[in-house]
Amino acid sequence: MPIQTHYLTSNPYSRPRLPLYKVTKLVIHWVGNPKSSALSNRNYFENLKLGRTKTYASSHYIVGLDGEVIQCIPDNERAYHAKSANSYSLGIETCHSDWEGKFSSCTYNALIALCAMLCQKYGLDPREDLLRHYDVTGKCCPKYYVVHPEAWTQLKEDVHKQMC
């Protein structure tokens, strides 16, 4: 799976360069901005370095509408994506085409492949170690998979099947 590396500039708002010693979970998000691209979401994180909004946010990966994957932060550094889980998890933002938040087949397939690769790399079980942002903070994210928990169960099962 091709991953484009576009690391964020070191800064206190989106790439603090704090160590992430051991990856034990993957946290899935939706970008909450329909039809936006992976690159535009990456650039949003990059522009936080200016400090205008005092917003702390980032993710390790962003999966785009056409299945492209951008890595924003190395796996051994923390991203600001899920509050208390930042110290032990990788954050994956996922683009979507509407406010319902269901991922397109291109996006979904790329997300499954990325999660399977990361689960294999870090020895994770997707049925236990794949979380929604909702599972960590209670935020309705990724919306479709909070509203449709059966779709979330299927997503985790699809990652597991991809690993076999």
Please explain how this structure is put together.
It is a single chain. This protein has 164 residues and is α/β, with parallel strands linked by helices. It has one domain (4-163): 3-Layer(aba) Sandwich (Lysozyme-like). The chain contains six helices and six strands. It has helices at 38-47, 105-122, 126-129, 133-137, 143-147, 149-163, and strands at residues 4-5, 25-30, 61-63, 69-71, 89-94, 130-132. Strands 1-4-3-5-2-6 form a six-stranded mixed β-sheet, sandwiched between helices. The longest helix is centred in the C-terminal third of the chain and has 18 residues, at 105-122. The protein is globular and about 40 Å long. The two termini are 16 Å apart.
Outline of the structure:
By secondary structure, the chain is of the alpha/beta class. 35% of the residues lie in helices and 14% in strands. Residues 13-150 form the N-acetylmuramoyl-L-alanine amidase domain.
Keywords:
6 strands, alpha/beta, cell wall biogenesis/degradation, Amidase_domain, six-stranded mixed sheet, 6 helices, single chain, 164 residues, Lysozyme-like, globular
